[in-house]
Structures are given as C-alpha cells and as structure tokens.
Design goal:
With 419 residues, the chain is α+β, with helices and mostly antiparallel strands. It has five helices and 27 strands. A hairpin with a 7-residue loop joins strand 5 and strand 6. The longest helix is centred in the first third of the chain and has 34 residues. The structure holds 2-acetamido-2-deoxy-beta-D-glucopyranose (NAG) (4 copies). The site of one 2-acetamido-2-deoxy-beta-D-glucopyranose (NAG) has 3 residues, from helix 2. It holds the Pfam family CUB. This is CUB domain-containing protein.
Length: 419
C-alpha cells in the first residue's frame, strides 16, 4: 500500500517536473526570442520569405507572449529553432569588432563574415561592416577606409560616409582614427590641401588633416539626423594618403558617453594625449612670412576630457619627458636653445593666441594666477576641478608660431587624501 502510494507520488512528481521544465524552456525561449533579433531556422530548406517573416515575428516576440495571440504563428516557435543568440558585439578573426548575426543576414547586408561567434550554432558568424567612399551605414562598429586600404590613396576628390542612427536611443558617435594620414596643413596650420570634416551633428568637430592615427573624436547626434564623415583630397599634392576609421554609435544611457563639451574622452586612469597632427618632427612647410611653419592646426577650440577613476580626486598633466618639443604652442621654437625647451623659464601666462586651459591649476602645491598655458614649456600642473578637462584653443594666425608642434601631454590621477 505504502509502496504503491510512494510509486504514484514519484510518478506525479516526475510529471510535474517535466511540465515545469517544459514551461521553463518555453518561457526562456520566448525571453531570448524577445532579446535576440536573429534566430536559426531548423529546416534549412525554408525559403527566404518564410525565414524573413519568422524573424520579423520574433522581433515582436515579447508582445506575442504578452497577448497570448497565436493566430499568426505557432505557439511552439521556441522549439522550432535549434538555438538563439543575441546580436552581441563580437571580435572577428581579423581582430575587428563586429556583430553576431546569421550568416545570410551578414552577406545580405554586405558584411564580411569573420569567424563563428556562438557555441549554439555554426550559422552565427561575427559580421564586420566595412565601407568605403559613397557609403551610408546604420550599423554600429562600421569601418570606413580609403579605397584599396591598406594600400595608400594618391588623392583627388571627396570620399564620404553617412552615418544614420537607427533610432533616438543613440546619442553620440565616436570615431576612432585607426589610421589617418592626410596631406599636412600649410605652414600656417590650415588644412587647405586635404581635409577631414565631420558635419551634421549637434556638436562641432574641427577640420583635421596631417598625421592623426590613434586620435579619436566624439560628436553628438542631432536627433536621428545623419552625420557625414568626409575626406577631401587634392590630387595635385603627391602624398600617400590612408585612413581607416572605426565608427561607434553610443546609446543615450551608455557608460562610455563623453561628457558635454568633450571632443575627446580618455577612459584610462593615466595615459597620454596630444593635439591633432602632433609629431615630434618639425613641419616641412613654410608659413606666410616665409619661415618654417607650425604643425598645429589653426582655428580649433575643444575639450579633452579624462574619466575620473574611482577614489581619485585630482589630475596632474606633464609634458611627455622623452620629447622636448611636447609643449611648443607659441613663440619661435627655432630661436630657443633646445635644452631650454620644456623648462619653466620659457613658460608664459600671457596667452591669447594658442593656448590650453587647465581649470583651477596648481603647480608644486601653489595656486596659479591664470588657467591659461602657452609658450614653449609646461611645468607639471595639477587640478581638482571636475570633470577633468583640458581645453585647447588655436587662432587663425600662426605667423609668429615658428616650427611649433603643439602639445603631447601625459596625465595621471591622484588618490583622494586619507583623512
Ligand atoms: C522542410 O521544408 C520543406 C519545404 O519548405 C519540406 O518539404 C520538408 O518536408 C521540410 N523538412 C522537415 C524536416 O521539416
Ligand atoms: C516561399 O514560401 C512561401 C510560403 O510558404 C510560398 O508562398 C512561396 O511560393 C515560396 N517561394 C519559393 C521561391 O519557393
Ligand atoms: C489576435 O490577432 C488577430 C490578428 O492579428 C486579431 O484580430 C485578434 O483580435 C487577436 N486576438 C487577441 C486575443 O489579441
Ligand atoms: C556599439 O559598439 C560599441 C563597442 O565598439 C559599444 O560599446 C556600444 O555600446 C555599441 N552601441 C550600441 C548602441 O549597442
């Protein structure tokens, strides 16, 4: 008697467990269907219109689950597929960033399949979006490069890409110049031979030329209006041009959004940054008074921001010590004994043409009378003003800026004092 009862209860427990597992799988299936916009069809002979319809239906998966309306599609769709995966960011076997999608979706969208990105199915591949002149994109992590990259481009004409955010949850664009080598500015710092312009956003980007690999910029989207990234080059100037940009779209709630007013935003707690076209070597161009020109780009005004690390209270900026030209903003570099470059003796606080601003600065624990820095050297300067930002200003007149390079600074953050 007791044995038979025990048997019966074991039996019903098993049935109950099976039902629970069944529904858990079902709910999990609906949940992942709602998250993912890609799914894998079990029956590979299904034709294109069928799989498209299914995939559209799955995008509405959450609504369907809520309304329990089964008239359009079978309720059993979670079991109809062999696996689901979300459209996560992946690293392709070419080391570029991509999006995990079904193989067919990648080729339909002119992506490049760069290896598998899911353990669930071999149909999920890391899709890299690479585009050149005349393209438009709505894909995150699109790469934009000159025709035939990495081969150089001789120049001539304009090469552009238009980036449109898929919806209003996207607020910022970050463009990383993985490679960017254009003709240099004139000796007066004007990008009149080649010019990279980024327009259509809600924030300004200066016109950029010269050597800028490793630099990046942020620009705010203006609603869902497209941003145009355009490289204009003059075929009359012989130069090996080359560029490859990584284009990221950042959601309005992203932790990596740059604060307002920041053209550049550095996340590491310590590191270096430089002005555009900064290279230690002098410009080869003459300026308008016929002497060796500047490398600094004229007409810039922007913020360089550094993310405050946890537990840090102040930040210290210094010249990169291995490079004596790493702070040459105004005055005649050629007229100064090179051993005096990067020393306090040539620093000036009377800065009105080209300068950087470090808010509320201190040097050696003493507050400075001015927050502007120019001349031919920068003493290590610390500030607690937040967000950590250096502003940079250059005017349109570089006549008296002979052989300047710009700035190349290192920064490190200082821990908050222990009480
Ligand atoms: C797969 O679909 C085709 C038509 O779409 C059908 O003829 C075939 O029987 C299906 N196979 C399986 C295993 O469902
Ligand atoms: C694809 O499937 C749909 C729906 O089953 C059918 O109407 C259509 O004729 C099919 N197309 C092809 C090319 O097989
Ligand atoms: C189910 O969907 C059909 C058509 O999509 C609609 O006419 C019907 O009202 C829906 N039923 C429920 C319960 O939502
Ligand atoms: C775009 O990709 C970057 C990684 O490059 C990621 O941080 C960001 O969140 C992605 N944006 C969206 C909207 O998913």
């Amino acid at each position: 008697m007791s044995l038979s009862m025990s048997n019966r209860s074991t039996h019903s427990t098993r049935i109950f467990a099976i039902v629970v597992i069944f529904f858990s799988c079902y709910i999990a299936g609906i949940y992942s269907a709602a998250r993912a916009s890609s799914q894998v069809i079990l029956n590979e002979s299904h034709n294109r219109s069928q799989s498209l319809e299914t995939s559209v239906a799955l995008r509405d998966g959450e609504d369907m689950a809520m309304s329990r309306n089964s008239s359009r599609h079978p309720r059993w769709f979670p079991f109809y597929t062999i696996g689901r995966f979300s459209n996560d960011i992946c690293i392709g076997n070419n080391l570029l960033l991509g999006t995990c999608v079904i193989n067919g979706e990648c080729s339909d969208n002119s992506g490049v399949a760069a290896g598998s990105c899911s353990t669930i199915t071999a149909q999920a591949i890391c899709c890299i979006y690479q585009r050149t002149c005349g393209a438009s994109t709505t894909y995150n992590n699109t790469y934009f490069y000159n025709a035939n990259y990495p081969a150089p481009y001789a120049g001539g004409g304009r090469c552009s890409i238009t980036v449109t955010p898929p919806d209003s949850t996207i607020c910022q664009l970050r463009v990383d110049f993985l490679a960017l080598s254009l003709a240099p500015p004139t000796g007066d710092g004007v990008c009149s031979t080649d010019a990279l312009t980024i327009t259509g956003g809600a924030s300004q980007v200066p016109t950029i030329c010269g050597e800028n690999a490793g630099q990046h910029i942020y620009v705010d989207f203006n609603g869902v209006n497209p941003i145009s990234i355009s490289v204009a080059t003059s075929s009359g100037y012989t130069f090996n041009r080359q560029w490859q940009f990584q284009i990221r779209m950042l959601g309005c709630t992203s932790a990596t959004l740059a604060p307002s007013g920041c053209l550049q935003y550095y996340m590491p707690s310590s590191g270096t940054f430089s002005s555009f076209n900064y290279v230690s070597a002098a410009s080869s161009a003459l300026n308008s008074i016929g002497v060796q020109g500047t490398r600094q780009l004229a007409n810039t005004r922007y913020g360089i921001c550094i993310r405050k690390a946890t537990g840090m209270c102040s930040i210290t900026y210094s010249q990169v010590s291995s490079d004596s030209y790493s702070f040459t903003l105004t005055n005649d570099v050629g007229a100064v004994d090179p051993t005096l470059l990067a020393t306090s003796s040539v620093q000036s606080q009377e800065c009105t043409t080209d300068y950087i601003v470090i808010p509320a600065p201190t040097q050696g624990g003493t507050a400075m009378p001015s927050d502007r820095f120019c001349g031919l050297g920068l003493v290590s300067t610390t500030t607690s003003a937040k967000p950590f930002t250096v502003y940079t200003v250059t005017d349109s007149n570089e006549d008296m800026d002979i052989s300047n390079r710009g700035f190349y600074l290192s920064y490190s953050q200082n821990a908050c004092p222990v009480l």
